[in-house]
Amino acid sequence: MPRAKKRSGRGGQPGNVQPFSDEDSSIETLSHCSSLSERTSAAEEAGETEEMAQEDFQYKLKVYIDSTVDKSAKTRQGALDGLKTAMATKILYEFISERRMTITDSIERCLKKGKGVEQCAAASLACLLCIQLGSGIESEEVFKTLKPVFKTILNDGAANIQARQACATSLGLCTLVAEDDIMDVYATMECFESLFTHSYVREDGSRPSVNPQTTQLHTNALLSWALLLTICTGSHIRAIAQKHLAKLPRLLENDDVNMRIAAGETIALLFELIRDVDPEFDYDDWEQLCEQLNALATDCNKHRAKTDKRKQRSVFRDVLKAVEEGDFQSETIRFATERMVIDSWVKKRTYDAFREFVGSGMNYHLQANEFIRDVFELGPPMLIDSAALKAMKSSRLERHLYNAAAFKARTKARNKFRDKRVDVGEF
């Protein structure tokens, strides 16, 4: 505010005091209006920028969708990959639901007419499409169109082996998300059984000769079968345990580390499910199975790669605990301000199946995807603005001090149990 000026009148008497002139008032008003208009225009510009970015993003998606029917295989492949990346990292329900049949037709065409890598990309895109649409009529319509194509490729021995592997994985997750009839779920499980049982040891004790690519196909089929096992009824779980629990341990002798791990995790999952159905369940060859699992948990064979042995030992320690004690080594997944505890083999198999397709976008989908939150019983999405999220985070200095204190305490605790290398002399 400008200072008021005093003016002298006649006879030295003080004149009328004016707090500010009309000109000063107009200047200040203009100043306030100018600053307000600047802030408003900045907000409008930010909104316009965001809106333009959204329009550009949707335009790119439309170009990708149109390019899935291009004559060039390379262009189709790039379009499928672009759509996969977008669906894995963003929630696009409204945009996709309006174009779901167009995208479904493109996926079907790429599966039927494409080759190898293109078929794999189309199969993965089908899963992401179902994840985006969630469990409902829309995803059911998509799956009814694609399920026959998946099964045709999966059962075709002359089809590309990589395409068959991808279809084995995608068919399992799409069935979990979009299948509306439990009898159809059982039929799909039988389709998977017809594949991975070819890796079972024969009745005469001989092992089938299977090449690595086919072994990977059988592994994918086994994991998808285990995924659908998580939604089976109690009576069906009893029937499956009676049919497969005696044969699955023979897959632990397989030369492929991925098959051994898949078989071990499936055995742990099956034990968890059957014990929930029948707490008094008793397995005849329990001691022999525990010995076999313990051997894999402490495997020291020199002919196996160090990374394979390390991965195998870590998994089978948990599998052994599951079979012997019914325990599960829980794991906490943190995303934004929330956390989810994976405390069972059922939840682990489900989480791993979704993460295989969503990848690095899994935390974002756990935070914002209503369907995935419903699967893991996380409730409706929590809406937290960026300012509140920033306020909740600890400062860099606080994190550094906490980590330093934790490191010091951990070192002290370990030193108590470490060998001090005391020389005890020779015997």
TrEMBL record:
Location of region: Disordered: 1-52
Query: Which InterPro entries does this chain map to?
Result: ARM-like, ARM-type_fold, IFRD, Interferon-rel_develop_reg_C, Interferon-rel_develop_reg_N
- Please tell me one Gene Ontology term that the record gives under cellular component: nucleus
Keywords assigned:
Developmental protein, Differentiation
The record's section on Pfam families has:
IFRD, IFRD_C
Under the heading SUPFAM superfamilies, the entry gives: ARM repeat (SSF48371)
The answer to whether UniProt assigns keyword Chloroplast to this entry is no
**In this protein, which residues make up the domain named Interferon-related developmental regulator N-terminal?**
29-324
An example GO BP is:
cell differentiation
Point to the regions of Polar residues compositional bias.
27-40
Q: Which segments constitute the Interferon-related developmental regulator C-terminal domain?
A: 369-421
User: Quaternary form?
Assistant: Interacts with PSIP1/LEDGF.
Query: So what family is this one in?
Result: Belongs to the IFRD family.
- Give the protein name, as stated in the record: Interferon-related developmental regulator 1
